[in-house]
Automatic annotation (TrEMBL):
Record flagged with keyword Flavoprotein: yes
Positions of region (Disordered): 366-400
Gene Ontology biological-process entries: fatty acid beta-oxidation using acyl-CoA dehydrogenase
Organism annotation: Salinadaptatus halalkaliphilus
GO molecular function, a single term: flavin adenine dinucleotide binding
Protein name according to UniProt: Acyl-CoA dehydrogenase
Extent of Basic and acidic residues compositional bias: 381-400
Amino acid sequence: MDFSEPAEATQLKSELSAFIETEIQPLEAEHERFLGPDAERHIFDDEFRQVPEYLELKATIRKRAAEADFWGMNMPESVGGRGIGTLTDAIVAEYLANQPPGLHTYAVRGAGGGPTPILLNCDDQQRDRYLEPLMAGEKTTCFALTEPDAGSDPHFLETTAEKEGDEWVIDGRKSWISNAPYADFAMVFARTSGEPGQIDGISCFLVDTDTPGLSVGDIHRPMGHAWVAPAELELENCRVGDDALLGAEGKGFFQAMEWIGNARLGVAAGCVGSAEFLLEKAVDYAEERETFGNPLVERQGISFPLAEVAMDIERTRQLYRYAAWKVEQDQDARKETAMAKLAAAKLENRAADVAMQVHGATGYSRREPIEKRYRTSRGKRLTEGSDEMQKQTIVRELRD
Ligand SMILES: Cc1cc2nc3c(=O)[nH]c(=O)nc-3n(C[C@H](O)[C@H](O)[C@H](O)COP(=O)(O)OP(=O)(O)OC[C@H]3O[C@@H](n4cnc5c(N)ncnc54)[C@H](O)[C@@H]3O)c2cc1C
């Protein structure tokens, strides 16, 4: 049994570290207000739209990351990615999350608008039109699956696409779609045949966001993750050609689930990295801060929760790495991936809670990164499959 980190991951982390230092940190220094305690006030206007300067900054980061081959690096080399393995990808996610707040996460993981393996289903013409500009950082996209009445159960979606001559007419409403207000094109999932609840009969369409009939509705006001800009997408008599269909007709649900399955490991690893960051801050603070004449860390009421978070980090790290290893061995890792995502999202929530408790009022201030992680970590128990959906998967696998 070999527990050492793959050489590919160690090398990539070192390259990323140099890239962040030379290309990203100067941008952070120049745009400090987009990262500071009042970041959200500067990023958004009164209508909760991201201000042009922030959008330009994201575009600059994308271009720099694409030129350095970090943007979409988990995509295969045949489409301009680095083709890095699942385990390396996850280890990098952990590494990026275990850092002070910054713009580096956007540069590599794209916050909901970057390259996604679903687009490997593109035909030649779709590759030229969508995938290549996406890989170059020139375009962004959004993944439009969730609807107001279909979230955990997306196969009950109500959006339909009906064939009229050589056109598809799409009607429906999507909600909580990250990057919807800024995407150049959307991956829209709609029922093309079958009944609500059937997993066959859902298709994915690539729809330019300036297509008549497609519009952005309400911009949600999330508690955290505001920068991913989740919003509604409305489709009313939205007409696209046959060339908008991605991959095989009726197989969109499988494309979506494959992507979400892969994304879960990245989320799990990121939660572990963030928990490490929070733990280190809490330990440092507990050593420095004195009450009743002694450092906080000498009180078991403070130090034991830290020991428990440390233990949980270790076991959750091994769990996500084991799941990633199984994926790389072409073994079925659905159960372990669900376990890793469930455990890691809960871990980050607990680590943020413990770090805030150790910091007292200081941790409750927006000037400390703990407050933001407390908010964002909560969302991770809902997205990419909620806690309950992970448990459902685990039980299904146990019963198979
Ligand atoms: C910040 C953010 C970004 C997002 N970005 C995207 C995106 O880019 N694209 C996209 O398509 N979606 C996106 N989503 C939506 C997300 O995927 C859904 O919120 C998620 O799938 C849950 O669906 P729901 O909110 O409708 O909850 P529901 O499905 O209504 O569930 C409500 C609660 O009930 C639980 N529950 C549901 N069914 C059961 C059951 N059978 N047994 C036990 N418990 C159950 C759920 O776990 C949850 O706790 C985003 C959400 C957030 C918060």
